[in-house]
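Field notebook, page 244. I keep forgetting to write these up properly, so this time I am using the form the group agreed on. The chain and the ligand, pyridoxine-5'-phosphate, are recorded exactly as supplied. Prediction of the bound pose follows.
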Amino acid sequence: MRFYLNIDHVATVRQARRTDEPDPVRAAVLAELAGVDGITVHLREDRRHIQDRDLRLLMQIVRTGVNLELAVASDILEIAHELRPMQVTLVPENREEVTTEGGLDLSRDSKRAEIGGAIRSLGESGIRTVLFIDPDEESIRCSAELGADAVELHTGEYANSWRAKPEEEQIKRLGHAATLARDLALAVHAGHGLTYENVSQVAEIQEIEELNIGHSVIARAVLVGMENAVREMSKILRQARSKA
Ligand code: PXP
């Protein structure tokens, strides 16, 4: 299973002072040296954390792969076409939200047409496309029909329920969603709200081949350093996989 580190939160600390440190590009180098399989960044329309400069530099120095999260908006898509990251994950974006709150809404025809168009054009540029969706049957079937290469299952509800313990139900839900996606020939990723404490049960789902984790790892890196934070998470993921 691949561990992709989302480094947006390094940029969030920098933007709090509108200065030049900490630099997410340096963070990416350290994370790669510690063993992550890829670097994820979300270039938001309001540029609240990652900046265009960060993405351009990351495209030059990242040796694993860049997973670029973006909303279906023409100016941001143009940047993706120009820079050609290995993978684009299409996400919903809402200016007021603190973080991405839910999966893509694929229930409306107009939205589906827009997302389908983006998948086709990104595919023509040789970019692998992923749709960030809630783990429900309709969204998965729709993602397959639209021709996405993969889905990223939103683990936020699982993460929110984790402390309260109804997580068994949420894990089953993620497991069923992962199996269905796999059966429909979609690669399966997952992420959002995953922590050192709650990630194991998700990592045990065999169909999941990539996890995108950000906040928890960056928060730990502030205290113990990037290398230790990445290695600790990688160890948990390895152990979960060998148990499953
Ligand atoms: N996956 C997607 C699509 C996201 O938008 C985010 C948050 O930027 C993550 C994964 C990582 O979430 P977290 O920071 O809670 O680990």
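OBSERVATIONS:
- The radius of gyration is 17 Å.
- The chain has a mean pLDDT of 95.
FOLLOW-UP: compare against the apo run.
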